[in-house]
Design a protein that fits this description.
157 residues, 8-stranded antiparallel β-barrel, globular, disordered N terminus
C-alpha cells in the first residue's frame, strides 16, 4: 500500500525541512521502507500480508502515529510525541500508546483507547531500526514489528 494520500486524509502539518528532517518523528508524514515481520490484531495474524513500509504521522497537537498496513487496511499506534527529544540519534525511544486507530484505503476511521508502547530509535542514523509496537484495549491486543532498511524515511506532502 502506498501512503501518498495519507497526509491529506489525516490533515497533518507541513513536511519537515531538510534541516529538521533529521529529527524523528518530525512534523508531517514520513514513510519508512523495510520489512514488516508481525502484525496481529486480537487473534487475527496479518503478518504475511503486512506491507514492507510503515508511516509515521505527526499531528499539529504533537501526537505521533505509527501506521502498519495489510490487505488495504491500516492499524495505527498513537501516542503523545511531545516528550520525544528532537535529534536523539542514539539509544532507544519509547512512545507511550494511548489510542489504536484503524482504517482502510487512505482514511483512518475508528479509534479505541489502548495502553502500550512503541519502541524505536532514529531511522536517520543510517542503520536498520526496529519498530516494536504493542498495546491492549479492554477487548483486544495489538502488535506490530517492523525493521527499516537503514535508508532515511521519505517525507510526504
Amino acid at each position: 500500500m502506498r501512503f501518498e494520500g495519507l497526509a491529506v486524509a489525516l490533515t497533518v502539518m507541513t513536511v519537515a525541512t531538510s534541516a529538521g528532517a533529521q529529527n524523528f518523528p518530525g512534523p508531517g508524514v514520513a514513510v519508512i521502507d523495510g520489512k514488516c515481520s508481525k502484525l496481529i490484531v486480537g487473534k487475527l495474524d496479518a503478518s504475511k500480508g503486512c506491507t514492507p513500509q510503515i508511516a509515521s504521522v505527526t499531528g499539529p497537537d504533537g501526537s505521533v502515529t505509527f501506521i502498519f498496513s495489510a490487505g488495504g487496511k491500516m492499524l495505527g499506534f498513537q501516542g503523545d510525541g511531545r516528550g520525544i527529544k528532537p535529534g536523539a540519534t542514539k539509544g532507544t525511544i519509547q512512545l507511550p500508546i494511548e489510542v489504536i486507530s484503524t482504517g482502510a484505503g487512505n482514511k483512518m476511521a475508528g479509534q479505541v483507547e489502548a495502553k502500550g508502547v512503541c519502541t524505536f530509535s532514529n531511522p536517520y542514523s543510517g542503520k536498520p531500526v526496529a519498530f516494536q509496537c504493542s498495546a491492549k484495549s479492554t477487548e483486544l491486543s495489538f502488535t506490530g514489528s517492523f525493521l527499516s532498511n537503514g535508508k532515511p524515511p521519505r517525507t510526504k506532502k
